Amino acid sequence: MAGNGEPISEAEALEQLRQTDDQSGQYYAAWWLGRMRSRHPEAVPLLLAALRQRQPRDVGAGVEHNAVARNAARALGKIADGRAVSELLVVLDDADDGLREAAARALGELRAVEAVPLLTRRLASGPDVAGANRSDSPRLQEPCEALLEALGAIGVAEPDVLAVIEPFTGHGRPLVRSAACRALLQLTGETAWADELLQLLQHPQLQVRRAALMDLGAVGWRPALEPIRRTLAENSLKLIALRGLVENGSGSASGSETGSDDEAVLMAMDALL
């Protein structure tokens, strides 16, 4: 926000990101540019410069810089400019798992096929290693959800990619299982993976039901319309998931039936408003 509490302009966001003395200002500016999908010619170069501010994990002063770098990575994914791919690939090997997570999601948004070997390498050790609990935090050894979602979004359905993803459908954390099923449904279109996600809509934990809603919406699995509508979760999240069914629609016939499916989804959305 600007000093008087008013939202900043694009020019102010660029200026805040350009300076390096106020990390909180940079953090907000990077978020703003990504949120607004800025097309200003300086936006991507400045975000890439902010991404390079990251510090080694053992440097205490790096905490704020890495927060800025994480927001820069997220923004680069939203802006979807291919110039960011090579530097995001480097960040995918960073020691900071939060940065790896942000980079993976951004590469997924960019549909960066070049990222597939690195993403699969990070996950190749499976749920017992990459998906193991860390001793110093509640996080996993790797940001598995983000890595799995990125593979699904990029869309390379090679057998070796599927073989890396599938073991995570049995992970102990339901959010990881949901991400793995989402990726496999995107890559294969097989109903079995949709069925797993539909079961997670009935999970006793609200956080898991929310994740399954978002995953079904991201895939656009049309047969999920009624289960989504009945899920015990906030209407605002159901609306996002239903919008995803329209924007990313799959699992239904083409032609006139698709138009009928769209109408059914829109009617369900209208009923939630």
Description:
It is a single chain. This protein is mainly α. The chain has 3 domains: 1-108, Alpha Horseshoe (Leucine-rich Repeat Variant); 111-166, no CATH class; 189-273, no CATH class. The chain has 15 helices and no strands. The protein has helices at 10-18, 23-35, 43-51, 62-79, 85-91, 97-109, 116-123, 144-154, 159-165, 174-188, 191-200, 206-219, 225-230, 235-247, 256-272. It is globular and about 50 Å long. 43% of the residues are buried. Mean pLDDT is 91; it is low at 252-256.
The level of helicity is: 55-70%
The radius of gyration computed from the alpha-carbon positions, rounded to a whole number of angstroms, is 20 Å
Fourth CATH level, the homologous superfamily of the largest domain: Leucine-rich Repeat Variant
Strand content: under 5%
- Unreliable stretches (pLDDT < 50, length at least 5) are 252-256
